[in-house]
Amino acid sequence: MILEPSIDKLQTKINSKYTLVTLSAKRARQIQNTKIHHVESPKAATTVGLALEEVLQEKLTVDPISQQENE
User: Fold this and answer.
1) Where in the sequence is the domain holding 47, given as residue range(s)?
2) Nearest to residue 24, comparing CAs of 60, 57, 58?
3) In Å, how far are 4, 17, 67 from 44, measured between CA atoms?
4) For the whole model, what pTM was predicted?
5) Which of 34, 53, 55, 70 has its CA 20 to 30 A from that of 14?
């Protein structure tokens, strides 16, 4: 089973796995509650997948200063 987007691609956008998981989980809950996402042509069938696609497309980012604090 191949998961998309791959962790290698995601870590080029957010280099901390902890930050990536926390951010995408929070965003997935928002997507689930509002049914609104910012992915133009989603491939994912789940809200977590949509959140990760937003990260990959740089529509969901993290403040670089807070990212350094989490490392």
Assistant:
1) 14-63
2) 60
3) 8, 20, 25
4) 0.83
5) 34
